[in-house]
Specification:
The protein is 36% helix and 16% strand. It has twelve helices and 17 strands. It binds pyridoxal-5'-phosphate.
Length: 377
């Protein structure tokens, strides 16, 4: 089977894991955790970082550190993995779903602005939903498949409404926005290092920021809000720290970030080059403002083809592929969430087919995927 997203663990992972075992530093304290935090900050172009146990936990901590509280609203795209909405719910808040734009599959800034203008009012410098009275507390774009959202436009809206920006950049480490690293575009940016990500720790996440206060608060909350060494805790905290074992794998992975991103972009170009011209298929968006980290590559099929059927036919040939995210408003916990009109998400979510995108793919494997797909389509 050629898998969809296989971790590439052929660097120093084993060596660093052995160091953890030899030194007995396997838990949340250790040199690899410190090094991983410095490396993530440096590689993403942010002043500081804190490592956590998952991307979801990182989003939860980032939202709380940016001031999101119970019964408030956070604007997120309607098209995202459910973890973005869950992180909002973990704060006791509710997602307000905004459609994505056709050109990038990330939160549509014009739609966001229209929604805020039409449905909110300002009171004492804070903004509230006119109908349900809830305060709008943050804007959280998602860097879909590793593609940064149009952050200059979103920053203008955030500033106009005095709202913090938290970026769900789960799969976007290594991407670029207007030629620059992405670590300080939002007030807090969150990465996932889950097993299917370009850089993995097995599981894990990180919050990065240019604002040291946000990072130290996120870190404090993620460390059971402990003060000193005598079991004092000054708020309700969480046990969300990354372990040294996870960070050891992460350090080895980050040593190869540039190589991995290059390979991901190569895979994306390869599929485009060899599938271009097949009637009824399109590719994932490219924008003039950003260079995607190409977490997943794939195709968008037209109405004449059924993604599930194509997946089954490819599986029969030993190639694992998958449909992509189901929109948030289709998930049971969020079916009544506040939302904008959702034309773009509705139009495209069913037609996405993600293709094998592992950094270890060989030329022969890529060729066989192309052959199989051409034959089926
Ligand atoms: C957009 C998005 N947000 C959040 C997450 C959650 O990350 P984790 O699985 O590390 O909790 C993911 C994971 O795939 C994701 O794709």
């Amino acid at each position: 089977m050629i898998y969809l997203a296989e971790p590439n663990l052929t660097g120093n992972e084993r060596k660093y894991l052995n160091e953890c075992i030899d030194t007995t530093f396997v838990s949340t304290v250790g040199d690899f955790v410190n090094r991983f935090e410095m490396d993530v900050a440096e590689k993403s172009g942010a002043r500081c970082a804190t490592a956590v146990s998952s991307g979801t936990d990182g989003l939860h901590m980032a939202l709380k550190a940016c001031g999101v509280e119970r019964d408030e609203l956070v604007c997120i795209p309607a098209f995202t993995f459910i973890a973005s909405a869950n992180a909002v719910a973990h704060c006791g808040a509710e997602p307000w779903l905004i459609d994505i734009s056709d050109e990038s599959w990330t939160m549509n800034p014009e739609m966001l602005e229209e929604e805020l203008e039409a449905k909110t009012r300002v009171k004492d410098g804070r903004i509230f939903h006119r109908e349900n009275g809830k305060r709008v507390a943050a804007i959280m774009p998602v860097y879909t498949m590793g593609m940064p959202a149009d952050m200059d436009k979103l920053r203008k809206i955030a500033d106009r409404y005095h709202l913090p920006l938290v970026a769900d950049a789960a799969a976007a480490i290594g991407s670029k926005y207007k030629g620059k690293n992405i670590g300080e575009l939002a007030d807090a940016t969150v990465f996932s290092f889950n097993g299917n990500k370009t850089i993995t720790c097995g599981g894990g996440g990180a919050v990065v920021s240019g604002n040291e206060k946000i990072i130290s608060l996120a870190k404090h909350m993620a460390t059971t809000a402990r003060v000193g060494m005598e079991y004092d805790h000054d708020m309700v905290g969480y046990n969300y720290r990354m372990t040294n074992l996870q960070a050891a794998v992460g350090c080895a992975q980050l040593e190869r970030l540039e190589e991995f991103i290059e390979k991901k972009q190569y895979i994306n170009d390869y599929y485009k080059k060899h599938l271009e011209g097949i009637p009824g298929i399109k590719f994932f968006p490219e924008t003039e403002w950003a260079k995607s980290a190409c977490w997943f590559s794939g195709v968008v099929l037209d109405n004449t083809k059924d993604v599930r059927e194509v997946c089954e036919q490819l599986a029969a040939k030993g190639i694992q592929t998958r449909p992509f995210w189901k929109p948030v408003y289709m998930q049971r916990p969020y079916k009544d969430a506040e939302k904008s009109s959702i034309n773009v998400t509705e139009k495209m979510w069913k037609h996405i087919l993600t293709l094998p995108s592992s950094t270890g793919l060989t030329e022969i494997q890529l060729e066989s995927i192309i052959c199989a797909l051409r034959e089926i389509l």
